[in-house]
C-alpha cells in the first residue's frame, strides 16, 4: 500500500490519542528497508513499517474496539491490547515491531494515531483507556 507519511524534511505531525502531545512520523531507510521514524521531542523511535498492514488486518479480524494499552519497553503490556500484540511472539513478525532496543515500546501510543490519519482506523481520544478499531 502507498501512504503519505511525509519526509524527514517535512514529516507528518500527529497527536497522541489523549490529544495531549504532538509528535512527528516519517518514513526513512535503515539497512535498506523502509521504517517508520517517530520523533517525540528529542526521543526518536523506529517501528517496522509492516506494522500498519499487519495491525489493520488484526483489527479487521478482531472486528471490535481494542484497548491501546501503551507501555514503555521495560514495562509489561496489558494482555489483549494493541501494545501487547505489537510485541507478541504470535504477531506476523513474531515479536517487537519497535526496532530500537530500549525504545521498542509505546507502540499503542504512536502507531494508532498514524493509522487514523491514514484512514485505516478509528481511535478514541479520552484522557486514558483509549481504544481503536479498523475502518
Give structural attributes.
135 residues, alpha+beta, four-stranded antiparallel beta sheet, three-stranded antiparallel beta sheet, 3 helices, 20% helix, 27% strand, globular
The strand count comes to: 7
Strand content: 25-35%
**Sheet of most strands:** 4 strands, antiparallel
Q: What percent of residues adopt helix (DSSP H or I)?
A: 10-25%
Dominant shape: globular
Alpha-carbon distance between the two ends: 15 Å
Structural class: alpha+beta
- Count of individual helical segments: 3
Physical arrangement of strands within the biggest beta sheet: 1-2-3-4
Which regions are unreliable across 5 or more consecutive residues at pLDDT < 50? none
Descriptive report:
The chain is built from 3 helices and 7 strands. The strands form 2 sheets. It has a 4-stranded antiparallel β-sheet with strand order 1-2-3-4, covered by helices on one side. A 3-stranded antiparallel β-sheet has the order 5-7-6. The longest helix has 12 residues. With 135 residues, the chain is α+β, with helices and mostly antiparallel strands. The chain has a domain of 88 residues. Helix content is 20%, strand content 27%. A hairpin with a 2-residue loop joins strand 3 and strand 4. It is globular, with a radius of gyration of 13 Å. The model has no long low-confidence stretch (mean pLDDT 95).
Amino acid at each position: 500500500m502507498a501512504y503519505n507519511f511525509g519526509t524527514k524534511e517535512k514529516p507528518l505531525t500527529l497527536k497522541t490519542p489523549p490529544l495531549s502531545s504532538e509528535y512527528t512520523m516519517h518514513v526513512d531507510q535503515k539497512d535498506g528497508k523502509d521504517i517508520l521514524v517517530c520523533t517525540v521531542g528529542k526521543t526518536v523511535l523506529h517501528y517496522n513499517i509492516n506494522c500498519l498492514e499487519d495491525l489493520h488486518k488484526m483489527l479487521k479480524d478482531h472486528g471490535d474496539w481494542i484497548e491501546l494499552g501503551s507501555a514503555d519497553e521495560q514495562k509489561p503490556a496489558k494482555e489483549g491490547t494493541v501494545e501487547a500484540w505489537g510485541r507478541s511472539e504470535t504477531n506476523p513478525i513474531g515479536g517487537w515491531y519497535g526496532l530500537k532496543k530500549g525504545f521498542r515500546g509505546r507502540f499503542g501510543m504512536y502507531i494508532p494515531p498514524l493509522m487514523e490519519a491514514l484512514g485505516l482506523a478509528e481511535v478514541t481520544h479520552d484522557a486514558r483507556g483509549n481504544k481503536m478499531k479498523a475502518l
